[in-house]
Amino acid sequence: AAGAVGLGVIDPGLVSVVFGTSGVVLAPTATPLRDPAGRLHTFCHALEDRWFTMGVTQAAGGSLQWYRRRFGQPEVLVAQASGTDVYDLLLAEAAQVAPGAEGLLYLPYLLGERTPHLNPDARGAFVGLDWRHERSHLVRAVLEGVAFSLRDAWELLVDLGAPLNQVRVSGGGAQGQLWMEIFSAVLNRSVTTVGGSHGPAYGAAMLAAHGVGMLDLHQMSESGWRIQATPVVSPTDWPAAYAGLYPLYRRSYQSLAGVYKDLAEWKTRQVLI
Predict the structure, then answer these.
(1) What is the pLDDT of residue 200?
(2) CA of 91: how far to CAs of 75, 119, 203, in Å?
(3) Of 199, 194, 198, 187, nearest to 157 (Cα)?
(4) pLDDT given at position 97
(5) Nearest alpha carbon to residue 52 among 21, 11, 18
(6) Whole-angstrom Cα distance, residue 98 to residue 235?
(7) What is each CA distance from 111 to 19, 54, 57, 124, 190, in whole angstroms?
(8) Residue 222: its pLDDT value, please?
(9) How far is CA 252 from CA 61, 109, 246, 265, in A?
(10) Which residues of the chain have pLDDT under 70?
(11) In the prediction, which pLDDT does 227 show?
């Protein structure tokens, strides 16, 4: 809640999307919206007469971090030698690959999943691996799979009737221009990236100022507490490709759900033996 306040995401219609280790899609509402299936989570907001409903991807930026640790040693060495950021190198490689990574899908369920599946047994997967695929294809698939997972949360919010007018994206992943272009194309709408790494601390300071009468959070546009933001426009030729791929991403989980369950049971038996 403090993080949303720090982004100015207080009133219905604004949406916060955080690309951190986990990913969060959060929408404030004037009345509580509840998902009966428990795939979304509803809480009181940090201000009176406000609630928010949110969905969570357990391993959003965590998926790219996992890839870097397991497969990104060449990029790590280049980054160390050149003084560049290893994630910039990974995204530059992914930028050379067309949308869809030549038929490669990534399911980001490395830690189980909360939204939309609520399944602790779900696990990560690359679906469609081909002899032609290089590491750059895997990186592109990771970026796209996380974006699809966050769209899952978005679609549930739409189904509940949450107002979703303006999207503000923050977190470490928001610093990657390619990732933001992919995400905006997956949603097929423009998003706004919010700079700074203050996170919830800035929101906590704003709440303290509000509490002692120094700031009216209901009149943010008139205050000196500015949220620095830059618009990102969807690439015109990507949304169509992702619109066709997103249903395949969703079907991939459904096809593997039984396998996940059986694998979890098998692992449990191995531990007990």
Answers:
(1) 86
(2) 11, 30, 30
(3) 187
(4) 98
(5) 11
(6) 12
(7) 16, 18, 9, 8, 29
(8) 45
(9) 21, 12, 10, 20
(10) 195-197, 220-229, 273
(11) 67
Residue 48 confidence (pLDDT): 86
- Retrieve residue 15's tokens: 């949406």
CA distance 10 to 207: 12
Token pair for 159: 């189904």
Query: Has this prediction a pTM greater than 0.70?
Result: yes
Would you state the structure tokens that stand for residue 70, as one six-digit string? 């397991």
Taking only Cα atoms into account, the Rg of the chain, rounded to an integer number of angstroms, comes to 19
Looking at residue 216, its pLDDT comes to 85
Nearest residue to 143 via CA among 23, 39, 26 = 23
